[in-house]
Amino acid sequence: MYRRLLKRLNEQKQRASDEYEIKRSKSLTKMVETINNIVGESDDIVQRDFKIGGQLKASLFFVDGLAFDSGIEDRIIKPLIYFADINKELTSHQLVEHLLTEVVTFIEVSEKETFDEAILSLMSGETLLVIDGIDKLILFETRQYNQRSIEEPESEVIVRGPRDGFNEVLHTNVMLIRRRLRDPNLTVQFGQLGRRSKTDFAIVYLKGITNQDLVEEVRYRLSCLDMDITMETGVIEQYIEENVLSPFPQLLRTERPDKTIIALTSGKVVVVLDGTPFILMAPVTFSDLMRATEDNYDRWHISSFVRLLRYFAAAIAVFLPGLYIAIVSYHQGMIPTVIALSIASTREGVPFPAFIEAFLMEITFELLREAGIRLPRPIGQTIGIVGGLVIGDAAVRAGIVSPVMVIVVAVTAIASFAIPAYNVSITFRILRFLVMISAAFLGLFGIVISYILINIHLVGLRSFGSYYTSPFAPYKFGEWLDLMIRGPLILLKNRPAEPGVLDKKKKDM
């Protein structure tokens, strides 16, 4: 697989070499003309012509709004204009070095070999300087980041723990990670995605803990992406996952820095993308999706009880409507007589079979849930609560559905909200309909068959080479202390077996 990557990198280097040979020149007029031809007729590209020390012609380019204007004027233009000691005996290389080290006061300065690289940096907010008689493309780091303040994530609300979350700026998000993890082995590697957007991203991992094969696999999959724009990590997730037909998420996403730190110290690789607060973590197992951030912050008795409750909620979210359909339609003898008579009385006059009744109610609640998300927040909350009450009560009064069916659907919806990972809760909602169809045709046998098929799929699923159902299968008893329950922290000495970490010990006691 690395041959394709190597071939692609060689082709890129060759194109860059061709660009360098064709377009770079010592003539300032030709350099400016080339830059203007590339950027076209963009009015937000600011060009400033001036003379260094009143003698040497130069031109400076930056994008209005992306670059720090006052910094450009005070720390680049003024020092160069007022520079009065140009030694004509210096070579072009020595002159540039002298200007950058003793005249200009910017910390980050770089030289680009091709116009492709220089224009890309220019469009990112850096300032481009070209000087007459010197075939150098000089870039100054003048980017300014207009960003949303660091706020509490709305998609991952917790009871206890840090309240800060990622925002849409890549460097801010990397800073939030480094702020908590000050290990010098924390490695951050930057890159760009998208042929048109050239969106910055970062691969973050802990050297000495994360398996290098996993890092190379993540880097390889990202390097193989070929798309025009990359606006969100959800797009990357769909391209680099192993099984595109699986409804289960194969990467974990989060807005929380503390959850990211836990993933990094467990040997996972993190992908941070500029322009989105959601970051990706790979690989992921099913047990990762059932864990919440605050599990580590509460005492083990509380965390164990809540985690067991989540697994019970997951079972309800997937199987409860199907169980109701199967028992009411095929297995009435399994219901105690008193309860059977009560259900029969509530269903008296209902014109639909149990499957149609459940299907209509589930679709109605899904519509209400989606409408509540898309509408403005105050209206959305009202629609979700009032709409559910009004429609449920009206449906029962009209005799379209039974009161028991409304209770079943309501409990199922509440259970789906107890799942920490939003993307896997959507998966459970999809699987619920498949289980309902199976129950409508085969009763409890259909539910059992659905359960077996789901488990077969999960056992065969992989996330970047790691077993999705680990440590359920392959069975690892030593990790069950942090699986369906969360044991005392003093006993959790080892890191998870998936992914294969280089340092398995978290602590020695």
UniProtKB/TrEMBL annotation:
Highest taxon listed in the record's lineage: Bacteria
Keywords: Membrane, Transmembrane, Transmembrane helix
Residue stretches spanning the membrane: 308-330, 404-424, 430-454
Predominant subcellular localization, coarse grouping: membrane
Membrane topology: Multi-pass membrane protein
Keyword S-adenosyl-L-methionine found: no
Location within or outside the cell: Cell membrane; Membrane
Family: Belongs to the GerABKA family.
PANTHER family linked: LEUCINE ZIPPER PROTEIN 4 (PTHR22550:SF5), SPORE GERMINATION PROTEIN (PTHR22550)
Record's protein name: Spore germination protein
